[in-house]
Every structure is written in structure tokens, then in C-alpha cells.
Design brief:
about 325 residues, alpha+beta, two-stranded antiparallel sheet, kinase, ATP binding, CBL-interacting serine/threonine-protein kinase
Amino acid sequence: MRALRWLHWPMWSSICHFTSNISIYALWPLRRLFLSFSSTAKKGERENDEEQLQSTFEDGSHKITIRRAAQRLDNHKLLIIGIFAEVYLVDNKIIRKVPRSASEEDMQPIIREAMVYDTLGIHPRIAECLSRGRSDYIDIKYYRHGDLANYCQKNTVAAELQSKWFQQILEAIVVIHSHGIIQSDLALRQFFLDDELNIRLGDFNSSQCPGHLALGYEKASHCLPRDYDLPNTETSDLFALGSTLYELVACKAPYSELAGPKSDDPDVIKARILRQHEVDHEIELRYKNHVFPDVSGLFGGKIILGCWRGDFSDAKEALDQLEAFPIYHHSSEL
């Protein structure tokens, strides 16, 4: 399914990941926004009583099909509708990810994620999969604190807790790489917080595993410039790890300022989406020239820069450097 990778870079990477960051990747709450700048958007009676929206971007169109509420089970609360999957909260205990159709492009990310969870098994740094042995949907334990990116945006995080998460993120990458898994879309939003506020890595629907090439890439702010026709590697994951750790300690994604101020105004959001392709190429150019965000004064700054520069042979080496200091020693000397 190598053909799926075009959806992630460069154009669809700009659209999909940007919309994810500002919560319009969900699509359902902001149908009006998509209708406002779609060149073709229609409603009508269909055989399965479905509503179809179609949005046209610079490089073509993508159809969004939304099932009416009557078609959902009572104990299934719709959370988001993505490109490939619908995500539900089941009985307030389980997050269920279901392919949007039986097409190969919708099924492959679900099959891949199931494969990765089966490979990784049970580990305190990995999200708990409750549907092992299945490949038609993914069930993950519901983590009430949500993902790490949203938690950090909404809460003041103590230095000690930030230091702990810094180490646990490194531990999670050591775990998946030891099994030959390349996450391939690493970012702070891929980490969930359990009841003890420990992190758990999840969302492996584009990941690479032994014998199976990745189905996607990272967003530009986390992406190592490279030949995208070649397999993803630990090196590309380590680069994304640097950007993820930067997100944690800087409270923003690398070069997020290039996109301009955030807004809930549909026109501003539309303009940001259409400009994101240009912003992504500017970020890629800076990375190619080894121009990275300033990390001076940030906890773990040297480790972050080392991930970007390729100073570490693997994640374990970065973790070892961190562990040479007490975990709660919140110092920019790291």
C-alpha cells in the first residue's frame, strides 16, 4: 500500500495535519466551514441515507461521508471523522477506531495499527489495545486525560512532571524501535496520559513494521527532509522525536509562528490551510540547511538538537544521555 503515502506529503500533509492541530480534522463540528469554501458540496437522499460533503483543494477533491446519527449504536459517541476512519467513545471506556468504508485505502491503516499493537504487546509506555486478534477495527482503552498536546495546552505543567514526560517519551521510542516499529508520524498528540499521568504512545495507523513499509510521513515541522520514496527509518523517527520533545518543553511546534496567529474565524482558518503548503516548504528548506529553532534555555535542549542533527545512533543513546542526570534536574544543560 505504498500508494497511500502520497496522502501525507506534501499537500495532504499540509491539510490533514494542520486541520488536526486546530480541531477541524474532526470535520463533523465544522461542516459549515468546509461548505463555505468547497467548490462542490451537496446534500441529498442516498440509498443508505447518508450525507455527503465534498471539498475541492488545489490538487483535487476529497469526499467526506458522514453517517447520520440513527445509524450509530446508542453506546457509541462519535468523536471525530478522519480521512480513513471514524472514532467513537464506547460506553465511556473504550476508544474505537472504525474504517470509514471497506475500501483498501480505508482498511489498510486499521490493519496496520492492529498489526503494530500485536507486535508490541503489553507495555506501560504503549496505549492499551483491547482488540488484539482483530483487524476490522481498533479498540484502545479510553484515557480520560486525553493526549499530551491538548493537556499541555490546557494545563500548567510543573517542571518535575515535564521532566518525567521527557524521559517517558524517550522510553516509548526505545520500546517501539526495539521491535522494528517506526512510528512515522511522531508528534506530541500521539501520546496519551493514563490515570497516573504517565505517557502511553499510540496511533500507529501509518507506522512501518518489519516487512511492511510506512503508509505516511510526519507533518513538516517534525519531518526529516529525505528521499520520500525510500523506507522510513529510525533516523527519521529520531528527527521527529526532537520536534516532539521541543513541543513538550517549548509548548509549541517547531516554527509554528510561520503559520500566523490562530483564530476560530472560518476565513482565517481557510487562509491558513491554503497557505500551509507554502509554510511547510519553508520549514523543509530550513531543515535542509540545518537551521533549527532556538533551544537555548530549554530543558533537554542538547538532546533535542542532537535528535535534529542526527547525533544519536538510536533512541537509547539519547535516553542514556538524559539518565546521566537526575530526572528532576530541570536544566538546560541536558
